[in-house]
User: Which sequence fits this backbone?
């Protein structure tokens, strides 16, 4: 389940580079900015759901950390696109990510207690892993603007931290 | 610039009222792009570590042995006084990929 979910997210995130490289093109900076921003919004929405449903103090603390960090990264991204006069461009990858996230939230909405906590945190591990892989292999190499590339690189380090943090919390539910 | 001035100031204060802490220093550790710099720190009991967070997100400096645990908001600083000798491994609770070690001598 988790692995299938991971593969689905990863393939969605790689669509941009995969499909584009078949045509000899890369995702553009406006598309990359949109994908990165969308990925952040998705994790904020997941955190909001966890804050509504969870009573576990570690899960609640983790969700608050995710909200704070992803909001801060997205604020930086918005300031950067404004400075560069770039308009983020919606694309197939962003749409697929949103669809999958909506489905996942509906699935998690049916759970409660420890079952919810475990499903949320397992998904956070898989989601950050997928986002980190996509950043490393597709989005960062494709970004042409140096400031965008640098923000994505900082984002990668932040999200690698989240992945480890999520793994620590997930260990509680094994 | 600030480090030497602060430590000199502290030295003067220490000399005036606390001869035992005359050599106490303020050691600055910068947090930038998800890393502590320096990552390996040598200090003495009584020294202060001043954590300067230059990132746009909050971090913590958390000792694995419980000696200290501070949250440092974006673009701000926090100080910790080292009270015991020994090696202290520390990390950021929010981003456990950030780690470092302070070796505290008597």
Assistant:
């Amino acid at each position: 389940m988790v692995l299938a979910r991971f593969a689905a997210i990863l393939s969605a995130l790689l669509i941009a580079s995969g499909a584009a490289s078949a045509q000899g093109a890369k995702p553009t900076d406006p598309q990359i900015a949109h994908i990165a921003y969308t990925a952040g919004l998705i994790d904020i929405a997941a955190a909001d759901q966890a804050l509504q449903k969870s009573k576990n103090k570690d899960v609640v603390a983790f969700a608050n950390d995710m909200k704070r960090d992803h909001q801060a990264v997205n604020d930086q991204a918005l300031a950067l696109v404004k400075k560069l006069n770039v308009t983020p461009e919606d694309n197939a990858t962003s749409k697929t990510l949103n669809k999958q996230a909506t489905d996942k939230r509906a699935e998690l909405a049916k759970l409660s207690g420890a079952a919810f906590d475990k499903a949320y945190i397992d998904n956070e591990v898989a989601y950050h892993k997928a986002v980190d892989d996509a950043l490393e292999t597709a989005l960062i190499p494709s970004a042409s603007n140096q400031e965008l590339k640098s923000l994505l690189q900082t984002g990668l380090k932040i999200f690698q931290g989240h992945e480890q943090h999520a793994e620590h919390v997930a260990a509680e539910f094994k | 610039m600030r480090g030497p001035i602060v430590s000199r100031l502290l030295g003067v204060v220490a000399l005036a009222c606390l001869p035992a802490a005359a050599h106490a220093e303020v050691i600055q550790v910068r947090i930038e792009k998800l890393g502590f710099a320096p990552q390996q720190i040598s200090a003495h009991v009584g020294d202060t570590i001043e954590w300067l967070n230059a990132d746009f997100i909050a971090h913590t400096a958390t000792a694995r042995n419980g000696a200290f645990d501070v949250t440092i908001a974006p673009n701000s600083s926090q100080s910790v006084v080292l009270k015991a000798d020994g090696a202290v491994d520390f990390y950021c609770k929010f981003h456990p990929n950030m780690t470092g070690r302070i070796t505290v001598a008597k």
